[in-house]
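Issue 218. Parser rejects a valid record. Input:
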Amino acid sequence: MYKSLILVAFVLISCKTTQHISSTEVAYLSTEAHTVSDGEIEAMISPYRSQLSKKMNVVLGELDQDLVKGKPNSNLGSWFTDILHAEAEAIFDTEIDLAVQNYGGLRIPSVPAGPLTVNKIYELMPFDNTLVLLDISGVTLKLFLDGIAASGGWPVSHTLSMTIIDEQATDIMIRDQALDPNKTYKIAIPDYVARGGDKNDFLKGVPLTDSGLFIREVVIDHLNTLQENGLPITVNNSKRIKVKR
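Output the parser choked on:
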């Protein structure tokens, strides 16, 4: 008699920086003598769905406004990169000059006002990108910002201001000081970008320090800390990138 192996493995997603298979059930059923019904499958899945739902529906705080993605600036992008900036300084234990998130890495167009859940952060940042730190020269940073300008703008932290003219980055200010081509800057970005993604091949080979932390988990940890300390979610809506036609 032929047997078929039904393996049910569920990944329970936690608010930590790693994911793992926490439980596996194996059942041997005869394909000749038994047909698995929808009800039996549902009975196996139901306990895990309940556990997963509880984790993903945890409320991390309250948003007092809709967060909307856009170019060259947006409150969603500014909020997100300001979190990355603050957390990068804590994670790497150093002052960060700039945090950047590639525009395409934010996968939903908006986050509505109201309760902000773990599930919504996973929707916003579903990829397993980690937060990394790069030490780059002012010349390389200018090249990087020119690429951002050519694309119409990416989310950047509050420490940067610049103007896009003819798809070039001009009037660049980092921490209220003009970009210095001879200076070395510390920037926090997704590992995907640091390794050449989104037309940034020139960053390949630049030494980096990888936090090993998924960016979505960095954001979740930040929101958890705010909540634990009774602090609200705030958004800095400063205009960071200007466009001159």
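Fixed in the parser; the record now loads. The longest strand covers residues 20-30.
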